[in-house]
Amino acid sequence: MKKYKKTDLESYTLGTTLTLELLNKKIEYVKRVYIHSKQEKNETYNKIVSICNNNKIEIIYSDKVINTLSDKENCYIIGVFEKFSCNIDYNNNHIVLINPSNMGNLGTIIRSSVGFNIKDLVIISPGVDIFDPKVIRSSMGAIFNIRFKYFDSFNDYIKLCNKRREYYPFMLKAKTNLKDVKVNNQFSLIFGNEATGLSDEYLHVGIPLIIKHTKNIDSLNLDNAVSIALYEFSKNDF
């Protein structure tokens, strides 16, 4: 195997925990599992081997493949899976990312979304490849617990949503404070690119919101802003 490229039909998980999550949640897409000679035969290893054997998934012991695919010395199991497509549930709440460009941020956002029980992710293209192993690793396997869909434009997305859905773009130019919002319907939380944020046209979409902070910083990191918004919108659910 060679290192991942966006055009590949397969991707992979780097590490035992991610591979076990893949096997538990998306086993129908798993093609094979690579194991390094340094991997301890511990409980997680035994679970992975058992699942593979019970489902006739090929196990290949290859230090060379793992050393080629992983930049970390402590990665001893890699799960290879076929890329899959899915659709979002239009009856649920959504996170909408406009042209996200950072793989680590995307993975962290996915993990936070799952943590706050919002499992439908919309990405407006162009955007980072959700199947990149760096995204999968930073999501800590949460990617296998979400539904996601790419759209060519925000308008293409809203055309498929019901009229009662409420849209909340997060912008520094917004006038409404996040803490003052009262949610009555299904909602979409909308965030811009890490470098540029949302364009001014989103000031006319739904209810633009701002997360107030001190003047000691110019803005919050994208993944931090998403996590704060997720907490505020779901705090009554826990």
Largest sheet, spatial ordering of strands: 7-6-5-10-8
- Number of helices, where a helix is a run of at least 4 consecutive DSSP H or I residues: 7
- Secondary-structure element series: EHEHEHEEHEHEHEEEEH
Instruction: State the helicity in percent bands.
Output: 25-40%
The CATH homology group name of the largest domain: SPOUT methyltransferase, trefoil knot domain
The total beta strand count reads 11
Major sheet size, sense and barrel closure? 5 strands, parallel
Low-confidence stretches: none
User: Beta-sheet strand percentage?
Assistant: 15-25%
**End-to-end distance, in Å?**
44 Å
Question: What this model shows, in words?
Answer:
The chain has helices at residues 16-25, 43-54, 63-69, 103-115, 133-138, 154-158, 222-234, and strands at residues 10-14, 30-35, 58-61, 77-82, 94-98, 120-124, 147-151, 166-169, 176-177, 187-191, 209-210. The protein has seven helices and eleven strands. The protein has two domains: 10-82, 2-Layer Sandwich (60s Ribosomal Protein L30, Chain: A), CATH 3.30.1330.30; 94-237, SPOUT methyltransferase, trefoil knot domain (Alpha/beta knot). The radius of gyration is 20 Å and the shape is elongated. The strands form three sheets. It has a five-stranded parallel β-sheet with strand order 7-6-5-10-8. Strands 1-4-2-3 form a four-stranded mixed β-sheet. The mean pLDDT is 95. The longest helix has 13 residues, at 103-115. It starts with 9 loop residues before the first strand and ends with a helix. With 238 residues, it is α/β, with parallel strands linked by helices.
